[in-house]
TrEMBL record:
The lineage of its organism: Bacteria, Pseudomonadati, Thermodesulfobacteriota, Desulfobacteria, Desulfobacterales. Keywords: Hydrolase, Metal-binding, Metalloprotease, Protease, Zinc. It comes from Desulfobotulus mexicanus. PANTHER family: NARDILYSIN, STROMAL PROCESSING PEPTIDASE, CHLOROPLASTIC. One of its GO terms (biological process) is proteolysis. This is Insulinase family protein. Residues 226-404, 702-878 form the Peptidase M16 C-terminal domain.
Length: 953
């Protein structure tokens, strides 16, 4: 189940994401009413993507086919039911989602308990290659076929047709599934979810969607029976409300024939019901809202305007209007984000947003996340920034930045569309059909909008912003872990607001144009000493005299992208003993600091429109810069990385922001069950080794910042570099540019690393309590295993974990209904010799923790005692092998999983050579032997996280 609300945890948006918002206009699952049941392109002056094949069967069911060859020989199939929780009656709240669950529990051609086995038997993984979600106005079923031949399409369409009209709703399965759905409801419950519900009711009062969260009501779920489920199913799963989407490496005409064969027999099984009314609201004046959630780790400050507007049709005029408004949001977002480089800025994150919801609601919002003692200053600053923008508008320099960013996205969309995965394109088509929006081609997008973007003026954007925000009302909300008293909160908010509005605002001082590049250009490219071709893996390794190693592989996997990974220096395994957790805080310090010459906002302005990204991280074995760009910008990317290495910054103001965000995260962890498990479990199973500790915000002082600088900077300046390049770029060009920008850097020889061993915390048991009112718990059990080598055994443990996961799913989810998504997985370290674990993790009801723990141990013991069958091996291995085919055509796999690190561990290359054959050689007897060897209950450790007051294990 998925649901996109009006507000979620704020993240700083990246340029591509901003541009997507600009171009696709109506974001999220914010469906429209009621025009989704026709072809929107027939009512619009916008051109449909020329390769899109659409049709309507005699029964009214529609279909969309897009031939697409990424990934090769695979196809993404979807049944898009244009009905969801919005369509439920008061007595049905939760049944749309319940029906979705029942689709996997018995149908005409797949009796209860057989569908998942069937998926596994044809090489599909449950949850990865097949899944579903329920939203407000849609229920969508997904199948990613391992083979897109005619037989594969027949199998996929048969399953989708069963979803559409063949569900049987077995009473026993209904009762069992109730426990699973209630477990999912518990898993979804959180302070953020509750806050979002309350905020939506404030921003959009009287709108039906606020009253219909897809997860539904507990009482309805508990009482749900076959009659009620059939009523919803037969009413809304009608042919004219359904659509089949196919994107993949297929013959579209054969696929069209198969769609007609499988879906033409579907008929309406119940009288049509009127689609419920959306509702109506009207705001006037300044309205204040306070919602306290002590379990939140922070405070959200929202300034918004929401108004009903005449239904928007998707046409050229409306897209230009929306694009203009989105450009305004980008401009305001940049201003809010750029302020983060000032240590006096009170908030930790901030964004500006605007969208059209349900075709009839225009919503604009500023959202900031701040410490609870900074809400007043944050609210004042946001009010003044908004007023400043609406009063004085934007400069030509600011406009130039967003023009470049948006035009760059248009170009990258054209260059990269052919290698976007089919599933992602299918999701875009589904989103377009349910918005509704014409699915246009990247080429048409550029033809229609590039000239408009180039010519649009700041005055046009200001007018659009003024019209959207209006002057008739403002909505001001403070939510989360506030220190406000409910009785005085609104008056205090009003006082802060009114005081802020009296402060004059002047047009902002424009930043001096940043100059980049600014370091002296290298005189010439340094030639490599040696070059070795690894022919079977199709890449080359080049060695330079200054101890720089380059791996380069040319691929066509991403037409518009080249990816780079620079590895150097020590890593988390060599973290300074006096500063536990430093490796977790250091990356943000580097990423938020820019360079010593240009701070982060200046650097972003200088690089606007380049589509380049650079991010620093600390891996277990080394420091890393991960980067990407368009192929034609590769030389500039190399220059940028050279600047980041030679002119690094570790700014005090950036460190203060890192500290504040860590403080915010700590507060959230104090009342977050799943988050506490995520933070504590790695350290617990690693025997509380300091290298797996998180730094405390209270300890993140200036001394720690200097310690980070002293740890990182010498490696930036002197450590040997391993540079890995993968993508659609000429290897000779890569060798030349790497030689130019890195071949002349003085670097020390690569040093042999001695890593202290890591011990698994065997036979331990721990319970942690969290101060929360949410009735949920988390359990993780770990069996100590081994490191990555010998690889034959670690691969066997990976398959064993999949067998165990399948058994646990059947026992705990399907049979007992105790958990929503229990899973098992194996992690084997390539850095710490002999360190690994086979883990089982699940959520649970607090009063059922002991029962779930026992059930997991019983399943594990039974697997050890009975062994693994040939069928279980096949169902575990075949989906894994299907996934491997995609991995071999994935740039990131070659970048980080094969080539990078091969200087220090050449065995990586042999591991990839034997990856497929190695899994094929594993037998059921091998897995049985591994179960006997490793699934020993006396060595297992467990960690449980519970609400305060609940009894632990």
């Amino acid at each position: 189940m998925s649901y996109q609300g009006i507000i979620s945890r704020v993240r700083q948006s990246r340029i591509p994401a901003i541009a997507v918002t600009c171009l696709f206009l109506f974001a999220g699952n914010l469906f429209a009413l009621p025009d989704t049941r026709g072809w929107i392109h027939e009512k619009s002056d916008l051109p449909l993507h020329p390769d899109l094949i659409t049709g309507t069967l005699d029964n009214g069911l529609r279909y969309v086919i897009l031939p697409h060859q990424t990934p090769r020989n695979r196809a993404s199939l979807h049944l898009n039911v244009q009905a969801g929780s919005f369509h439920e009656s008061d007595a049905q709240q939760g049944l749309a989602h319940f029906v979705e669950h029942m689709a996997f529990n018995g149908s005409t051609n797949f009796p209860p308990g057989t569908l998942i086995h069937y998926f596994q038997s044809i090489g599909m993984s449950f949850g990865g290659d097949t899944n579903a979600h329920t939203g407000l106005g849609e229920t969508v079923y997904h199948i990613l076929l391992p083979k897109a031949d005619e037989q594969g399409l027949k199998k996929g369409f048969q399953v989708l047709a069963d979803y559409a009209h063949g569900l049987i709703f077995d009473e026993n399965e209904i009762e069992r599934e109730k426990g699973v759905i209630l477990a999912e409801k518990r898993a979804r419950d959180s302070a953020r979810y509750r806050t979002g519900q309350a905020l939506r009711n404030f921003l959009l009062p009287g709108i039906r969607s606020n009253e219909r969260p897809p997860i539904g009501k507990k009482a309805v779920i508990e009482k749900g029976d076959r009659k009620e489920l059939l009523d919803y199913y037969n009413t809304w799963y009608r042919p004219e409300a359904m659509m089949v989407i196919l994107v993949g490496d297929v013959d579209p005409y054969k696929a069209e024939d198969l769609i007609m064969k499988h879906f033409s027999p579907i008929i309406a099984r119940a009288p049509e019901r009127e689609i419920p009314d959306l509702g109506h609201f009207s705001h006037e004046g300044e309205l204040f809202f306070h919602h306290a959630e002590p379990e939140s780790g922070d405070v959200s400050i929202v300034i918004a305007a929401s108004r009903m507007v005449p239904p928007r049709k998707d046409n050229l005029e409306s897209r230009k209007e929306s694009l203009t408004l989105q450009l305004g949001s980008m401009l305001l977002r940049h201003r809010l984000s750029d302020r983060l480089s000032d240590p006096a800025t009170p908030y930790n994150r901030a964004v500006a947003m605007a969208d059209i919801q349900h075709q009839s609601i225009l919503s604009t919002r500023l959202v900031a996340i701040a410490p609870k003692d900074k809400w007043e200053a944050s609210l004042s600053l946001m009010e003044q920034e908004l007023r400043k923008a609406l009063t004085h508008g934007f400069s030509e320099e600011e406009m130039d930045r967003v023009r470049r960013e948006t035009l760059s996205y248009l170009d990258r969309r054209i260059a990269g569309f052919s290698t976007i995965p089919s599933r992602k394109i299918a999701d875009e088509i589904i989103q377009a059909m349910n918005t509704p929006r014409v699915f246009t081609s990247p080429e048409d997008d550029k033809a229609l909008f590039a000239g408009f973007i180039e010519e649009i003026q700041a005055e046009d954007v200001l007018e659009a912003m003024k019209n959207a925000w209006g002057d008739d009302h403002r909505l001001i909300a403070i939510t989360g872990n506030t220190s406000l008293d409910d009785h005085t909160a609104l008056s205090r908010m009003q006082s802060v607001w009114e005081k802020s509005t009296t402060i004059p605002v002047a047009a902002p001082d424009m930043a001096v144009a940043a100059i980049f590049p600014y370091l002296p250009e290298p005189a010439k490219a340094v030639q490599p000493l040696t070059s070795v071709s690894i022919e079977d893996l199709e890449f080359s390794t080049v060695q330079f005299a200054n101890h720089t190693t380059l791996h380069v592989k040319q691929t066509d996997f991403e037409a518009d992208t080249v990816r780079v990974l620079i590895s150097f220096g020590p890593g988390r395994a060599h973290e300074p003993e006096d500063w536990p957790g430093l490796s977790l805080a250091a990356p943000a310090l580097v990423n938020l600091s820019g360079t010593a010459t240009l701070d982060r906002p200046d650097l972003a302005r200088a690089l606007a429109g380049k589509g380049m990204s650079v991010e620093f991280s600390v891996a277990q074995e080394n420091f890393r810069f991960s980067a990407s760009s368009k192929p034609e910008d590769f030389s500039e990317l190399m220059n940028l990385l050279r600047h980041r290495l030679l002119d690094p910054a570790f700014r005090t103001e950036a460190w203060e922001l890192v500290r504040r965000r860590a403080e915010q995260e700590e507060r959230r962890m104090e009342s977050d069950i799943a988050g506490t498990m995520q933070h504590i479990a790695p350290s617990f199973f690693a025997s509380f080794d300091p290298r797996f500790s998180r730094p405390k915000a209270s300890e993140m002082n200036e001394d720690m910042r200097r310690a980070a600088e002293n740890w990182l900077k010498p490696a930036f300046m002197d450590a040997a570099l391993e540079i890995t390049v993968v993508g659609n770029v000429n290897p000779e060009l890569v060798i030349g540019e790497v030689g130019r920008y890195f071949g002349d850097l003085p670097r020390s020889p690569r040093k042999e690393k001695t890593i202290s061993p890591l011990a698994f915390n065997e036979g331990a048991k721990a319970t942690y309590w969290v101060d929360t009112q949410i009735p949920s718990a988390q359990i993780r059990i770990g069996f100590p295993t081994m490191g990555l080598e010998p690889v034959e055994e670690s691969r066997g443990l990976t398959l064993l974990s999949r067998v165990l996961s399948d058994r646990i799913r059947k026992e705990i989810r399907e049979k007992q209904g105790l958990a929503y998504s229990p899973r098992s997985f194996h992690q084997a370290s390539s850095v710490y010799k002999d360190y690994g674990g086979l883990y089982i993790q699940t959520g649970a009801r607090p009063d059922q923790v002991a029962m779930v723990h026992k059930a997991i141990m019983d399943v594990s013991e039974k697997l050890k005692r009975e062994g693994v069958s040939e069928e279980e091996l096949r169902r575990a291995r075949d989906p894994l092998l299907t996934g491997l085919k995609d991995r071999f055509r994935n740039n990131s796999f070659w970048l980080a999983g094969v080539m990078a690190g091969s200087v220090e561990d050449p065995r990586q290359l042999d591991r990839v050579r034997t990856l497929e054959s190695g899994y094929l050689e594993i037998t059921a007897k091998d897995l049985t032997r591994l179960a006997e060897k490793w699934l020993k209950p006396d060595r297992a450790s467990s960690i449980t996280v519970l609400p305060v007051g609940e009894e632990g294990l």
